[in-house]
UniProtKB/TrEMBL annotation:
Gene3D superfamilies documented for this protein: Tetratricopeptide repeat domain
Protein name in the entry: LATERAL ORGAN JUNCTION
Organism: Hibiscus trionum (Flower of an hour)
Family named by the database record: Belongs to the PPR family. P subfamily.
InterPro entries: PPR_P_subfamily, PPR_rpt, TPR-like_helical_dom_sf
Taxonomy, superkingdom: Eukaryota
PROSITE patterns: PPR (PS51375)
SUPFAM superfamilies recorded: TPR-like
Keywords: Repeat
PPR repeats: 172-206, 242-276, 277-311, 312-346, 347-381, 382-416, 451-485, 486-520, 521-555, 556-590, 591-625, 626-660, 661-695, 696-730, 731-765, 766-800, 801-835
Keyword presence, Repeat: yes
UniProt xrefs under Pfam families: PPR, PPR_2
NCBIfam families associated with the record: PPR (TIGR00756)
């Protein structure tokens, strides 16, 4: 606030402090009273501190010389004038204690305490002696309160200046600083700021300690703009302050959430040579941690140690937490050791930070060890400690331990939060412990702490598995309990319907979501697109994508991958490749899985040249193929009988340090088996085991079929025995292959032993198995046994196929039983089966050569 005795239009604000204050327009300026015990009494310009008017208050004090020989208070009558009191005070100018006693004695008589000028005169006398500085402060502090009817700061300042001139006092800035401090003490912050500004305008520079008090008060009240302005004015008059000033300003920057400004300010004042203390370094470290700039934090810690300062427990706590948050657990642990060696105790905040650091690295055991250690040392874990451990135990599928912590938390009297409950519910659902999750969920609902996130966890669990009925039931329960569904809730319900390919209901949920004011997001549209692709409706999926772009929702990489994968799966792989190029132009960065989708699509379509072209394009763009990429290509080349390229992919994969998985090995093994190259197949089978993998039943099936195809049933049977010894189950296909092989070699007993073994294991023969048996028996003239198999098929309700009838007709034809052959032909017609060329070759032309008959297991 500018002085009322200056012309603001003629003196610019920035230069006003350079001019001395002009004389008052009146030699006897009066002001409102300073203290009025009676709040109902009218305050006038010539009232007194007690609120009692002077007997001669209508007459202003004349500007006349003061007589130093006026009588003291003890000889006065009850009617005292301002002139008399001021003259008496001035008579004790060199004896401030007596002056103060006189002032108090007058007040005790109840006749006079004094006007603002009397008060100013007394203040000048008191600050003039070091013996009464404290009394001056006490006088100000006890005569100021939060009553804003008291004199405005500039009025008081002008009276102080005026009385110093009129009564020949040296202008002592101490009185002004004490006045500034008094305004702050009684929480008159606006008046304190006006007082500060008024002092500068009168060329009175506030003392640094009192400036710091005001600065701190502003920061404490979040008046950051005023704090910045005040500091700027300090600097403009050449006062940069001290360590406390720096601390207050840095605290202001941090409260504003601007740690970079705090750090820059610290660097500036440090470069200017301001003597900084440990507190400033501590708050600078705090700023560095908030940025975060952990290099600077570490450097400041080293400087503190170099100056012989031991960082406080709070500083250690802040730095350790920052390093752990940035993933540098090693440095966090080192600082923890340094903290302990400095004599600072381990606290629960540091311990919790370190536990979280261990958890983020997946080392739950160490986190729990530290948890147990702090309890042994008498440090009580708090709610945050339990929350961290429960959450991360659930994330790492140690939900049983998480629940133990949950129960321990309650035993210690710490009330779990809904976040704890939600973590446990999610953990139990991940562990497929539906009963435990449901129990916790019901408990949360009954206690009233369940929120929309609690319901959404369960909704997602049902929705991702396509359990629409359960999801709908939970939705109704949520609404009935007064929990408003969120965007996520609607997305979950749409997901449920998309999983079961009920896109009509998914779209209905979408419409309801929009009608209720929720905004669909990228996830919403991506789910719908994926649902339509899953139903095989690629055109509708692309329409939804266009709609998404039309409402200005930016597709994510997840969306782009859904489209590319969806097109590839429905046989539109060339279109998927074109879409990829368009997406890349829009900033999409394809991943390995993106290219794998297209490669897989081309492989399924038999377009191996295109698949290999995408592979080269993938490598050229700097994306390294993974096991899935190579497995898909190897499988494709094997199916297209291009074993050389399949092996090339195999060797290239090994050169890149990638290990083939079992499906990749099987693709190669199966390819060589089908080509009759059992030497290569056996080499790969051995390599598979040498790299530490175990062949599964699919690998064994390929090998057994390969040996059967080259009529090496001994090797095939050895593999069968090896499977049984290793506990690998033989499936129907393997038994059928072995039975077929032994029947080809006329080893009927071995074939029927395997058939009996298969039935004993509860493996039910299918049409292929029966075809193999009947064909083998008929070829060997075992027509009676063949008819028994046919009767078994009838009992099981399995209708014979054309291949079986051809085998039986051919068998009877060989035996010369044309009547039975004809009967079987008629039976086949009665069953609605259409004879094929082989049937007529047998009946009409009499061709019963083996090449006219089925091999038995064409699927092998």
């Amino acid at each position: 606030m500018k002085s009322p005795f200056k012309n603001p239009s003629s003196i610019p604000p920035l230069f006003s402090r350079c001019f001395p204050s002009p004389k008052h327009l009146c030699s006897q300026p009066q002001a409102p009273i300073l203290h009025c015990p009676n709040p109902t009494e009218k305050i006038t310009s010539d009232s007194h501190f007690t609120g009692k008017p002077f007997p001669d208050s209508e007459n202003p004090i004349p500007n006349v010389p003061i007589d130093p020989h006026l009588p003291s208070a003890s000889s006065e009558d009850s009617s005292l004038t301002q002139t008399h009191v001021i003259n008496t005070l001035l008579s004790h100018k060199n004896d401030p204690v007596s002056a103060l006693k006189y002032f108090r004695s007058v007040g005790e008589k109840g006749g006079f305490v004094g006007s603002i000028d009397v008060f100013c005169v007394l203040l000048h006398i008191l600050v003039g002696s070091s013996q009464t500085h404290k009394q001056a402060q006490y006088l100000l502090n006890n005569n100021f309160d939060s009553d804003h009817s008291r004199p405005a700061p500039v009025v008081f300042l002008d009276h102080l200046v005026d009385t110093s001139k009129r009564f020949d006092f040296e202008l002592n800035s101490r009185a002004f600083n004490y006045l500034l401090n008094s305004y702050v003490r009684v929480n008159r912050i606006d008046d304190a700021v006006d007082c500060f500004n008024g002092m500068l305008e009168r060329d009175i520079v506030p003392w640094i300690p009192f400036m710091n008090i005001l600065l701190t008060a502003l920061v404490r009240r979040n008046l950051m703009d005023k704090a910045r302005e005040l500091y700027g004015k300090m600097v403009s008059v050449g006062v940069r302050g001290d360590s406390f000033t720096v601390y207050a300003m840095m605290r202001a920057f941090l409260k504003e959430g601007k740690p970079w400004e705090a750090e820059e300010f610290f660097r500036e004042v440090k470069a200017q040579g301001v003597d900084l203390d440990a507190a400033v370094y501590s708050i600078a470290i705090q700023a560095a941690c908030q940025k975060p700039d952990l290099n600077m934090a570490g450097e400041l810690l080293r400087e503190m140690r170099g100056r012989g300062w031991i960082p406080s427990e709070g500083t250690f706590t802040t730095v350790i937490g920052a390093f752990v948050k940035q993933g540098n657990l090693v440095e966090g642990l080192r600082l923890k050791d340094e903290m302990l060696s400095s004599g600072k105790p381990l606290n629960v905040v540091v311990a919790t930070s370190l536990m979280k650091g261990y958890c983020k690295q997946g080392d739950i055991d160490r986190a729990l060890d530290l948890f147990n250690k702090i309890k042994e040392d008498g440090i009580a874990p708090n709610k945050v400690t339990f929350t961290v451990l429960i959450e991360w135990c659930c994330r790492n599928r140690a939900v049983k331990k998480a629940y133990e912590l949950y129960e321990e938390m309650k035993t210690m009297g710490i009330q779990p939060t809904v976040f704890n409950v939600n973590s446990l519910i999610g953990g139990f659902l991940e562990a497929c412990s539906l009963n435990e999750a449901s129990s916790l969920f019901d408990e949360a609902v009954e206690s009233g702490i369940a929120n929309v996130f609690t319901y959404n966890i369960f909704l997602y669990h049902f929705s991702k598995d396509g359990k629409v009925k359960e999801a709908c039931s939970l939705w109704k329960r949520m609404v009935a309990n007064g929990i408003a569904p969120s965007n996520v809730s609607y997305n979950n319900m749409m997901l449920a319907y998309c999983k079961v390919r009920n896109m009509d209901m998914a779209n209905t949920i979408f419409s309801e979501m929009v009608e209720r004011g929720f905004k669909p997001n990228t996830i919403t549209y991506s789910m719908l697109i994926d649902g339509h692709f899953g139903k095989g409706d690629a055109d509708r999926a692309l329409d939804v994508f266009d709609e998404m772009v039309g409402v200005h929702i930016v597709p994510s990489d997840y969306t782009f991958n859904i489209i590319i994968n969806g097109l590839s799966k429905v046989g539109r792989t060339f279109e998927a490749r074109d879409m990829l190029k368009m997406f890349v132009q829009k900033g999409f960065i394809p991943l390995c899985m993106t290219y794998n989708s297209i490669i897989n699509g081309f492989v399924k379509e038999g377009a191996m040249d295109s698949a290999f072209g995408v592979y080269r394009e993938m490598c050229k763009s700097g994306i390294s193929p993974n096991v899935i990429t190579y497995t898909t290509l190897v499988n494709g080349f094997c199916k297209s009988n291009n074993m050389d390229l399949a092996l090339k992919m195999h060797y290239e994969m090994k050169n890149k340090g990638l290990q083939l998985d079992v499906p990749a090995f099987n693709a190669l093994i199966d390819g060589f088996c089908k080509n009759g190259d059992m030497v290569r197949a056996c080499e790969l089978f051995s390599e598979l085991q040498q790299v530490g993998l175990s062949p599964n039943e699919i690998v064994y099936s390929s090998m057994i079929s390969g040996f059967r195809n080259i009529n090496n049933m001994e090797a095939a049977n050895d593999l069968h025995k090896k499977m049984i010894n290793e506990g690998i189950p033989c499936d129907l296909h393997i038994y059928t292959t072995l039975i077929d092989g032994f029947l080809r070699e006329s080893k009927l007993l071995l074939a029927f032993d395997l058939y009996s073994e298969m039935l004993a294991k509860g493996i039910v023969p299918d049409i292929v198995t029966y075809t193999v048996l009947l064909n083998g028996l008929c070829k060997k003239g075992q027509l009676e046994n063949a008819h028994k198999i046919l009767e078994e098929m009838d009992r099981k309700g399995i209708t014979p196929n054309v291949l079986i009838y051809n085998a039986l007709i051919a068998g009877h034809f060989r035996e010369g039983n044309l009547e039975e052959a004809s009967r079987l032909h008629n039976e086949m017609l009665d069953r609605g089966l259409v004879p094929d060329d082989t049937t007529y070759d047998i009946l009409v032309n009499g061709k019963v050569k083996d090449e006219n008959l089925p091999s038995g297991v064409s699927c092998a």
